[in-house]
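We modelled each protein-ligand pair independently. The example shown here corresponds to the magnesium ion entry; the chain sequence is given first, followed by the ligand as SMILES.
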Amino acid sequence: MIELSEELLLRMYYKMNQARFFEEKLEELEEKGQVHGTVHLAMGQEAAGVMACLALEEGDLVSLSHRGHAQAIGFGLDVNLMMAECLGKETGYCKGKGGSMHIADVENGNLGANGVVGGGFGLSCGAALTQKYQKTGKVVLCFAGDGATDTGSFHESLNLASIWKLPVVFFIENNQYGMSNPVENHMNVENISDRSEAYNIPGLTIDGNDFLDVYNTVTKALRYARAGKGPVLIEAKTYRFSGHSKSDKQLYREEQEVKEWRKKDPLLKMKEYLRENRIFTEKQIQKMENEAIISIEQAVEFAKKSPSPQLDTILADVYA
Ligand SMILES: Cc1ncc(C[n+]2csc(CCOP(=O)(O)OP(=O)(O)O)c2C)c(N)n1
Ligand SMILES: [Mg+2]
């Protein structure tokens, strides 16, 4: 069992709440037509995205999925700059030209969210090879969804990572669907982690809604990869409460299914843990939630006040 300090638990709860409020706000702004490009919400998946990143050490790298807000917040990205990016403002991470699906900050180790499903696997292997070659002692955490593990890139990357013993942890958020396609329709294995056997690397399936399970498992996997033993595949079983993206009418799932998963809300589970173990008082819990809300309200204010990109910069940073 990994010891968790009070300070770390505080940070965990704060960031989980920040991730939830960030997306609640974003959804609201999207409905008002203020968000540029499409948005994929990860409400319900916060324990997976946030906790996996909190297990990282300074200098480690991440590659985020297209459903990457909680992952980005866990990694420590600035919510002001994230919100500005989603609203297409010049102050955003990619000067407002990337939007929600392309939030990147390469200099600080975020290789970027990726609109290409499965696009992060190869990038992560490349970055992990750099770490190995330059003996930096750093690890790459690669996020992707269940659907992405059906791509050729996933299998090529696991194979390469295995034979080269690359310091990379593949973290799959299995939210039960690839768009409208349930996981049992798009693959013939019970657990995605079973796919690790083909590449002779460790594969683990965990409860992606349990913050402790995610944090502990990723911490151990990072240690393994950092020690030069090679990659690890982790499958975190979770669920997205919202539709795939804004145009999703969700005709492929029953309301009852969503209700059942809502009972396993990762934020509620963490709150129960804090209460049951009497780690914080009700007042402290409330204070953390309020501070998280305030940080997001400030982010919206920052983004709204920020200028839009100038027309004469339209071709700057465009590579193709
Ligand atoms: C290469 C590629 N193919 C198809 C798409 C369209 N697309 C966007 S998200 C998605 C489903 C991905 O499912 P999953 O990997 O489970 O991630 P989730 O959306 O559930 O988080 C698809 C097919 C894409 N963006 N890129
Ligand atoms: Mg999925």
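The pocket of thiamine diphosphate (ligand 1) is lined by residues 40, 65-67, 115-117, 145-148, 175, 177-179, 244 (CB under 6 Å).
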